Fold:
Amino acid sequence: MTRWRAIGIAGTLLALSACATPATTPAATGAGAPTRGTLTVLAATSVRDSFARLGAHFERDHPGWSVTFSFGPSSGLVAQLVAGAPADILATASTTTMDTAVTASVVATPTVFARNAMTIVVPGDNPGRVDSLDDLADPQVSVAVCDPAVPCGLAARQVFARAGIAVTPITQERDVAAVLTKVSLGEVDAGIVYVTDARLAPGTVTDIPIPDADNATTDYAIAVARASENPHLADEFAQFIHSDAAQRVLRDAGFAPPG
Structure:
């Protein structure tokens, strides 16, 4: 366990214990802090739906403030932040990717807020007749995965390695949403996506669970950007993601709590 993850777990416990107090207080907001504005969040594509709901919840509790999101592959978001893109919060789909931002000194100490696992998805009519991981090794079955530079791509390759199968994808996409789209449109026979993403296309794709022994998980991390113009409110948002209310939203979407 890296040092910041150990600190992050402790921070999570503190945040959970603090959620019984009002979200907006002079101590939390900071003396002389602005009372309105925009909070910019860079977040992994796989939390798009959950964070959109949580952003609306946060706005209701903070009149005068709006939360805007830029979703994309975690590695790309880190690259944007390192290049100077304006942002208040970074949320990545892996701690390894977040470590890159920590090393570049563009974020404060991160915390782990959720965990995700992988699943197989196939078009509704399952044209490739895929029933298990082993079927993905069939050269007649077309498979889509994420690019190995992003967390969902790395996790897919971990699944193949643990299952002891050789899979040659016909396409490697920029993020998990692109893989899901390929499968939904029937452009491939199968794809590897997060469990949470499979839930976003009911009736369009069918998910085929991956055995726990072969599956891979990834931890999601959140941190305040060091260049944030609203660090006090950004810290409130990061703590809010650990609150019971936010964790319920994430759990309903299929995320597991931090390990």
